[in-house]
Design brief:
Blueprint: E1 3-7, H1 13-25, E2 30-34, E3 42-44, E4 50-52, E5 55-56, E6 67-70, H2 76-81, H3 84-95, E7 99-103, H4 106-112, E8 142-145, E9 150-153, H5 159-171, H6 173-180
Parallel strand pairs: 1-2, 1-6, 2-5, 6-7, 7-9
Antiparallel strand pairs: 3-4, 8-9
Helix pairs in contact: 1-5, 5-6
Length: 192
Amino acid sequence: MSVLVLVAPGSEEIETVAIVDTLVRGAIEVVLASCCPAGQRQIRASRGVQLVADCHLDELADQEFEAIVVPGGLPGSEVIRDTPRAIALLKAQAAAQRWRAAICAAPAVVLQHHDLLGDASATCHPAFQAQLPAAQLSTARVVTDQAHRLITSQGPGTAIEFALELVRVLRGDEAARTVAGPMVLPPRSCPE
């Protein structure tokens, strides 16, 4: 099984690349799928960096993923929010109680917009925190809600911690430590 990472024009490049790179370091197969409305695989990210997806979302065969990850950034999160196939996959993932993860604007713009948070604890970029229900909002850098199989995080500066948490929940503590060590992260960023 593998992890699906959604990307769209205007997705945040640090988050997208940090997620994909960290998961690959954790020996996790990653499928980077474009949600570009024009069906293109190459997208211009939020700061102008060109990224090329492995495939377009419409090219994906029906398959199960261990996790589906949504990077933030605008307008990328809005494009993903407005892509019916992406939302259908996220809803199916939630219904099957498989992992979902979102960072930066995506927890509010994509997940909350489509009622995909349920009553899970979550965080997002501080500029979007008012859009999450106050009773569910955490200001932690990375929030894992085990019961809802949901990981959320705040933004580009938390992207590696977020990705390491994905490695931890999918492959275990030792795998996350093995990935984190050579990355020379500050101790607080590494899984315990």
